[in-house]
Write a structure and sequence with these properties.
Elements: H1 5-11, E1 17-21, E2 23-27, H2 31-36, H3 41-44, E3 52-57, E4 63-69, E5 74-77, H4 81-95, E6 99-104, E7 110-116, E8 121-125
Parallel strand pairs: 2-3, 4-6
Antiparallel strand pairs: 1-2, 3-4, 4-5, 6-7, 7-8
Length: about 140
């Protein structure tokens, strides 16, 4: 699709392809481009969307990505399952494989093993417990 002008202004980099599925997906041709994107978050707030996912083929994984969602108070999510539920079917079809290795290249970053299961996406990886609590309902 033709991206809204505000998206390209916010990402400060012209994608080779743009898709939309609740969030914009901007596809680039190199991992380096995705790593170097420095979004203008105030401009990204002007784009009517849940967020912006940027992605490219990876140098040593199947694909890399980053996810920006300033409209919900998260300028950049370090590692997000939501974005991968959109990206996995795209990359599985593009690469012709169901199991994929992915890396979210945010500052904290993370590696994921993903599987396109048709109507579902399997995602696994390492995680660190950072908060524990309980909820009491009346």
């Amino acid at each position: 699709m033709e991206p809204p002008p505000e998206l390209e202004i916010a990402l400060q980099e012209t994608p080779v392809e743009v898709l939309f599925n609740k969030s914009y997906v901007a596809v680039y041709d190199s991992e380096r481009t995705v790593r170097e994107i420095a979004p203008d978050f105030s401009e990204l707030l002007c784009v009517e969307t849940h967020g912006a996912i940027v992605t490219a083929p990876g140098d040593d994984v199947d694909f890399v990505s980053r996810f920006f969602a300033p409209d919900v108070g998260i300028n950049e999510d370090p590692v997000t399952g939501y974005a991968h539920t959109i990206l996995v079917p795209y990359w599985a079809q593009r690469l012709g494989k169901r199991r994929l290795r992915a890396r979210q290249v945010s500052a904290r970053g993370g590696e994921l093993v993903c599987e396109d299961r048709g109507v579902r996406v399997g995602i696994s990886g390492q995680a660190v417990l950072y908060l524990e609590g309980s909820v009491h309902l009346p």
